[in-house]
Amino acid sequence: MKRILTLAIVLFTHHSLGQTTFQTYDLVVSDPAAVVAAIDKYQASPTGQSNSASVVLYAYVAAGANTATHAINVVHPSPSDMDANLALNESQDQAVFLAEIREVATVTSRAMGETLLIGGNPENITSANPAVMRYLMSVSDPAAYAQAFSSFLGQNPDIGVSYLSSMMADGTNPETHVVLNYANSVGELFINQPQTLEGWAEYSSAVKGLRTIESTAIATEVKRWVP
To answer: 188, CA 20 to 30 Å: which among 9, 44, 139, 182?
Structure first.
């Protein structure tokens, strides 16, 4: 079963973020408000205050055969920060958080990866609940693909915010990379589809044979917690 992978919207101009790591969880949620309340409570706890990760909750709009309704993404500034944050999982605050989440949600998948490139402008995203279009891909030549993607992003600095990430642990799913394109709304995603942007023909030609799109999906951000 394909999943929606989501990344927090860390709004930077185009550059490399090769040390930013993330965890992502798909969930079937029966009470979204209770999930928000549980994260709020954890973030306000002593353990949450010590955690350097950003947390984002998403609601899926279109996910194909994926049965999950929501996703939680946890973004760490670096691998060493990830180690420190994972060590906090033994805390009582974490135990309480997990118990509260289990009452209203079931985790259906887990994955980990690394953010490679970000393009766009923070001023492009003004909505408190932006939308994201996700492309899960199998890439045969990561370096060549990253170069083509970087060039494409550089030609469209005024359109949303986009991410290229690699997957390190994703179970049996075939994808090796994920691209996420953010906009202020679902409608804006439709208006600014990649094939309508500057440099699409060159980009499409450059990546032909380099990547296979395994699945696509759309989600909206519910809430973001930043340390």
So the answer is: 139
Domains and CATH numbers, the chain: 15-225 (3.30.70.100)
Residues in CB range of 197: below 8 A, 6 or more apart? 152, 155, 156, 159
Instruction: Convert the pLDDT of each residue in 194-221 to its tens digit.
Output: 999 999 999 999 999 999 999 999 999 9
Residue where the block lists tokens 């469209």 = 156
| % the chain with pLDDT above 70 | 92
Q: Which long-range contacts (CB under 8 A, 24 or more apart) does 223-226 make?
A: 223/36, 223/39, 223/56, 223/57, 224/8, 224/9, 224/54, 224/55, 224/56, 224/57, 225/39, 225/40, 225/43, 225/54, 225/55, 225/56, 226/54
The pLDDT of residue 113 is: 95
Distance CA 198, CA 210 (A): 20
What does R_g of the chain's alpha carbons equal in angstroms? 17
> How crowded is residue 168: how many other Cβ atoms within 10 Å of its Cβ?
12
Dist. CA 79–CA 100, nearest whole Å: 28
Structure tokens that stand for 185 in this block: 């709304």
- Strand pairing partners for 106? 28
In this structure, the strands spanning 15-16 and 105-120 are: antiparallel
pTM: 0.87
Q: CB within 8 A of 163, min separation 6: which ones?
A: 7, 115, 117, 118, 178, 179, 180, 182
